[in-house]
Design goal:
The protein is an alpha/beta fold. It folds into two domains: 6-176 and 293-377, Zn peptidases (Aminopeptidase); 178-291, Alpha-Beta Plaits, CATH 3.30.70. Helix content is 32%, strand content 26%. It is built from nine helices and 16 strands. The longest helix is centred in the first third of the chain and has 20 residues, at 103-122. It is elongated, with a radius of gyration of 23 Å. It starts with 5 loop residues before the first helix and ends in a 7-residue tail after the last helix. 46% of the residues are buried. It catalyses: N-succinyl-(2S,6S)-2,6-diaminopimelate + H2O = (2S,6S)-2,6-diaminopimelate + succinate. GO terms for molecular function: metal ion binding; succinyl-diaminopimelate desuccinylase activity. Keywords: Amino-acid biosynthesis, Cobalt, Diaminopimelate biosynthesis, Hydrolase, Lysine biosynthesis, Metal-binding, Zinc.
């Protein structure tokens, strides 16, 4: 029996951090994990998506029930390298902290899943059923990897889903808001600013519409996950100060809730656009990303298991909350019933997407033990 101990797991994490999979190059991560799993007689298949981007799937065990576990292989850009205290693509341990791009979001969680699968396989495999690893590309922008898995039916027979996104050891999530990215394009007629009556300022109706939409969405009652968030993130229009702009665009992100979902946002914005266009505007809406909210019951089987197993590691009750951001569950848990066993639980903190992204070494080691225990205990019987 060749299980992976803490030092070896840390070396695997260092190897994966070294791969700069910044919104690309997940294929390199997938090949590394495929070779690692093969050393322990676990077959993994790479599913090419486009270019140097790919998903990876691996299984241990046999038959049903199937527990899907998932982590993404991409990371966000490191930003200003001079602002980092360490080189972001080298794992550095300092004062009990692990530093590196993706150490929290979410290569530590991904490595923890892989190591747990290897160790369970080396200890004889799952008692019942199958553990299926779904390692995704493109989670940070667009979630194309999890969308591909969903379209391929990777979740059709799944009896549960654990996503090892950063939650700390003190909290888990059974639900998450939706995320809806939109582009609004307003067309006008450019003229000299001394004679605006001869043209049409593309910015004016767009700004009015955005303000009206923002005011409206602030009146929507908050749901169990909190309020709808209508975020005007990027606004562009005009080329110079003495000319009316003939084109203006806005990029908007809406965080939706089950009580007011993506379809309702679409309908409201469609109605607003129609009203402005009837008054002479020429505004169109393009959907960039459309991920619906996911809501499962806070007492689903997997959450209860996370709480029970996690409490000794956390030293206190593991709190169930909503995930403020989206995860690949937007696709992987799509159209699942409210009682579907789903949980977000993994090593990490709130330093993701920042310079000096870090993770307490103790947290990583604790979550390695937790995930190994969780995957073992999920199979005490043949039912879910």
């Amino acid at each position: 029996m060749r299980t992976i101990e803490d030092d070896a797991a840390l070396k695997i994490l260092a190897d994966v951090i070294k791969i700069p999979s910044v919104n690309d190059h997940e294929l390199t991560v997938a090949k590394y994990l495929q070779a690692l799993l093969a050393k322990y007689d676990i077959s993994a298949k790479i599913h090419p998506i486009t270019g140097d981007r790919a998903n990876l799937v691996a299984e241990i065990g046999h038959g049903k029930p199937v527990l899907a576990v998932s982590g993404h292989m991409d990371v966000v850009a490191a930003g200003d390298l001079a602002a980092w205290d360490t080189y972001p693509f080298t794992l550095v341990e300092k004062s009990g902290q692990l530093f590196g791009r993706g150490v929290t979001d979410m290569k530590a969680g991904l490595v923890a899943l892989v190591v747990a699968m290897i160790n369970i396989q080396q200890q004889g495999g799952p008692k019942h059923g199958t553990i299926r690893l779904l390692a995704t590309m493109g989670e940070e922008v667009g979630e194309a990897g999890s969308a591909a898995f969903y379209q391929q039916g990777a979740m059709q027979d799944a009896a549960g889903l654990l996503i090892a996104e950063p939650s700390t050891v003190y909290g888990t999530a059974a639900e998450q808001k939706g995320s809806y990215d939109l582009k609004l394009t307003s067309k006008g007629k450019a003229v000299h600013s001394s004679t605006p009556e001869r043209g049409y300022n593309a910015l004016v109706p767009l700004i009015k519409l955005l303000n009206e939409a923002n005011d409206y969405f602030e009146t929507i009652p908050a749901g169990e996950m909190g309020p709808v968030r209508f975020n005007i993130d990027v606004l562009n229009g005009g080329d110079q100060v003495n000319s009316l702009p003939d084109l203006a665009t806005a990029l908007v992100n809406v965080r939706t809730i089950p009580e007011y979902d993506n379809d309702q946002v679409t309908q409201k914005l469609t109605d607003l656009i129609a009203a402005y266009n009837q008054q002479g505007a020429d505004i169109k809406m393009t959907v960039i990303m459309n991920e619906s909210p996911i809501a499962t019951t806070a007492d689903n089987r997997l959450v209860k298991l996370v709480q029970a197993i996690g409490k000794p590691y956390a030293g206190r009750d593991v709190v169930v909350a909503s995930s403020p951001g989206i995860t690949d569950a937007s696709n992987l848990a799509k159209r699942q019933p409210a009682a579907f066993p789903f949980a977000v639980y993994g090593p990490g903190n709130m330093t993701q997407h920042q310079v000096n992204e870090s993770l307490p070494n103790r947290c990583f080691m604790t979550l390695l033990q937790f995930i190994n225990s969780c995957l073992h205990v999920f199979w005490p019987s043949n039912r879910c």
